[in-house]
Specification:
The complex is a heterodimer of chains A (265) and B (257). Chain A has 265 residues and is of the alpha/beta class. In chain A, helix 3 crosses helix 6, helix 5 packs parallel to helix 7 and helix 7 packs parallel to helix 8. Chain A starts with 8 loop residues before the first strand and ends with a helix. Chain B has 3 domains: 102 residues, no CATH class; 51 residues; 65 residues, no CATH class. Helices cover 60% and strands 10% of the residues of chain B. Chain B has a 4-stranded parallel sheet, with helices on one face. Classes of the chains: A alpha/beta (265), B alpha/beta (257). At the A-B interface, helix 2, strand 3 and helix 3 of A face helix 8 and helix 9 of B.
Amino acid sequence: MPASTELRKLAIVPAYNEEGMVGRVVRDIARLAPRFDVLVVDDGSTDATAAEAEAEGAAVIRHPYNLGIGGAVQSGYKYALRGDYDVAVQVDGDGQHKPEYLPEMLAALKTSGDEADMVYGSRFRGDPGYRVPLGRRVGNMIFSVVLTAITRQRITDPTSGFRMTNRRGIELFARDYPHDYPEVEALLMLHAHRLRIHEVHVRMNARGFGRSSIDYPRSAYYMLKVLLALFVGLFRRRPTPVEATGEDEPGIGAAPIADGERIQS
Amino acid sequence: MRRLAALLVALALIVPTAARAATLEVTSTQESGPDSLGAAILEAETGDTIELGPGEFLLTNGEYLVAKGLTLRGAGADATTIIPSGAGDALEDPAVTVVDATEAEPLQAEDEGSSGLETKVQIVALIGTLALFVLVLDLVRRRRLAERYALLWMFASAALLVLAVWRGGLDVIANAMGVEEPANAIFILAFGVAFLLLLNFSVVTTRLSEETKILAQESARLEQELRAARGETPHGNGASAPAAEQPERERSDAHGS
């Protein structure tokens, strides 16, 4: 391990046509969590999202066309992997995630270095702070029940995209990340790879323009797609990319310790 | 004595049968129902005679006609006509006697293998599948179809070709599938093959979109690195953006070592 005491931290901001909002997100991260480098992944926007982000000093990856939220977030993790970052956090470009929670999440990731590979912000651990539409709440509850059963730990907000992960998570997601509605499936992937999930309570802003990436007609499709993904995921043998030993079974004992050292260094 | 006993037994066996041999009358010319020819055949005992009035009678249950060795008696060769509904084999059988009636042409054409495909259809199918074959080969020749998909389609058209040429084949397959009508068997098979081909294309499409995604991410990353290396930002306002990106790259180098 390098003697460096400073962890390299990256904030991944996926943004699709977030002109007028993404600049504020970048600025807020720089102000409230200045130790984080900011990468905006412009997922094929047709407006000035990329320019606005660059003007605020963020590094910008511009997709040649819209890959969807999964592809955008994965681009960020790939960047984090190449840039040798120790910590990566997803912060939505629409302003719903509050960067003021980043230090708290980082602390949770660090102090629980041997217990958590991913810390995510849950709206439903306490009062969400704003009214969540009933349909979404119900959908969230169903996923919550299913994931809690699978992972045998309480997952209260599986659709939250406000997530911070260590090097193991970065390596996993850079290699493989789900497509359309990735959050729930990504949790299952973490579990399948025996990466540990930790939950902290956050409040979120109602989405910037009152727009959701999931509108009503699509929510049924969303539910079905994610449930199918969960079901299939249970039967999928995923390679474990984190261990470089080349063995089939992940070395449960070895890797977390090595990681713990790194994260605490 | 023994001979006499045997004779008596034989008589005892014959007499009741002979005594029961009766005559049934058919009054309905309907295909089925009461008093129809088909019903009378079912009703009749071995060796009975069925009397038919004038008119045209559709013959059904031919196999019982043969099994019971019945006699059909019409009202005259020019008055009564019997139309076999099957292949007409029953009336030819030596066990069956037909008197005073005309046997019409069977309704169903006699056919060696009772194959569902007629010669005309065969020719059409042959030409069609050959054309498909040539089309596939031509697409490969013009490099508009990759060989591995060409093989798939050529296999499919070859299967069609075999079914078109091999008459009995379709019947064999239909029998094995438990399908009565060979034409239906070919529809089911064709649907199954088409389904598998489409599924295969969905798999290919999924892989292609995955590969395209990776390419898009790579090209976007390379473009970002290129701009960072040149210290230029095509869209940013010149002054602040490179300054912001440059330190980041330096940090990256510092920590990488």
